[in-house]
Write a structure and sequence with these properties.
Layout (H helix, E strand, L loop, with lengths): L7 E4 L2 E11 L4 E9 L1 E7 L6 E5 L5 E3 L4 E3 L2 E7 L2 E4 L1 E6 L3 H12 L3 H15 L4 E7 L1 H6 E6 L4 E12 L6 E2 L11 E9 L2
Parallel strand pairs: 10-14, 13-15
Antiparallel strand pairs: 1-9, 2-8, 2-15, 3-5, 3-12, 4-8, 5-6, 6-7, 10-11, 11-13
Helix pairs in contact: 1-2
Protein name: Lipoprotein
Organism: Clostridium gallinarum
Length: about 200
C-alpha cells in the first residue's frame, strides 16, 4: 500500500487539556508528585503548590495531605508552545471515533475505568469535527511535561492524544502503538491537546 506522507508541523499555543494522573502503589504509602512543565499551568485539582503530596492506596484512591480530602486522580491543564511534527497517526471519521478510542486505549494499556473517563471527556469534543488526525505523543511529551515521582514507580504509562480537526481525510502513515505492562507501583496519565 502506498501512502502520501503528510508532515503536519504545528507550532502554536496549544492547551494541554485534562491530563489526569492515577497512582497505583502496591501498598498504601505517601507519594510526592512534581510536574516540570515547559508552559504555564492554568488549572490544577487538587491545587498544585510545589507539587502534590498524597497518601495513595492500592485501588488508586488518593488522600491529598494539604486538605485531607479524597481524590480519584491528580488533574492539571496548561498552555505550551510545543512544536509537534506529525508524520504518522490515524485519520478517524467522526462516527468511528468511539470504537477507535476504545480499541486503541485498551490496546495501549488503559483499564476500562480509565479509558471510559477519557472517552466521556474527549468523544464529544472530537465528534464536533468530520474527521480528526490523531497522534499519540511519546518522548516529546515526556520532555516538556516531566513527572518526578517519589517513591519511584515501577511502570509509567503516559497517553497524550494530539489531534487536528480535518474537513476531509488525508493519507498518513499509521502510527505503531506499543502495549504497556503494569508492574509494581504503576502510574497512569492521560490527556489531550488540539493543534491547528
Amino acid at each position: 500500500m502506498l501512502f502520501s506522507l503528510f508532515l503536519v508541523s504545528c507550532k502554536s499555543e496549544a492547551k494541554d487539556a485534562k491530563p489526569v494522573i492515577y497512582l497505583y502503589p502496591t501498598k498504601e504509602e505517601v507519594v510526592d508528585v512534581k510536574l516540570d512543565y515547559k508552559g504555564k499551568l492554568t488549572f490544577t485539582y487538587p491545587e498544585y503548590k510545589d507539587g502534590w503530596t498524597v497518601t495513595a492506596k492500592e485501588d488508586g484512591t488518593l488522600i491529598n495531605l494539604d486538605d485531607n480530602r479524597e481524590y480519584s486522580y491528580l488533574f492539571w491543564e496548561g498552555i505550551s508552545n510545543l512544536d509537534y511534527n506529525i508524520s504518522e497517526g490515524f485519520v478517524i471519521k467522526k462516527e468511528d471515533t468511539k470504537d477507535f478510542l476504545q480499541e486503541k486505549l485498551e490496546y495501549m494499556g488503559l483499564t476500562p475505568r480509565e479509558y471510559n473517563e477519557f472517552i466521556v471527556y474527549w468523544l464529544p469534543i472530537l465528534e464536533e469535527n468530520d474527521y480528526n488526525l490523531i497522534y499519540f505523543a511519546g518522548e516529546e511529551y515526556d520532555d516538556y511535561a516531566k513527572l518526578d515521582i517519589t517513591p519511584k514507580p515501577d511502570s509509567i504509562l503516559r497517553v497524550m492524544m494530539v489531534y487536528k480537526p480535518l474537513d476531509k481525510p488525508i493519507e498518513i502513515k499509521e502510527q505503531e502503538l506499543k502495549q504497556f505492562e503494569r508492574k509494581g507501583f504503576s502510574v497512569i496519565e492521560w490527556g489531550g491537546t488540539k493543534i491547528n
